[in-house]
Amino acid sequence: MFQxxxxxxxxxxxxxxxxxxxxxxxxxxxxxxxxxxxIKLDGFYLRRPISVFDYDNTSITLIYKVVGKGTxxxxxxxxxxxxxxxxxxxxxxxxxxxxxxxxVIGGGVGVPPMYALAKQLIAEGKSVTAILG
Length: 133
Hints:
mainly beta, 2 domains, 6-stranded antiparallel beta barrel, 2 helices
């Protein structure tokens, strides 16, 4: 786990009430697809846990749905603003146990982490089938 300050580079709606936010910062604590972050929001007591959609050496991309006051606040954040995140939470997926033709299944909030998982499996030369709902 790592706590750091991340800069918003993008925060835009994908469809009604679903947003994509990209954050620039240290991603070394993310070691496997399926991990999540906890976001501290000004004026809110509890951090917001959000699954990691995608990541690389310098950025994290999250997909979130506006369902309450906290995520409504997040939807108003603009590029250039900073967020305090706990990064690298959860164990993530162990792709070594997947076989050569893995099937990834996700629904609702379980869909975003399937992207990074499928991406990793494809990079390992596996033929991935996705079932999403």
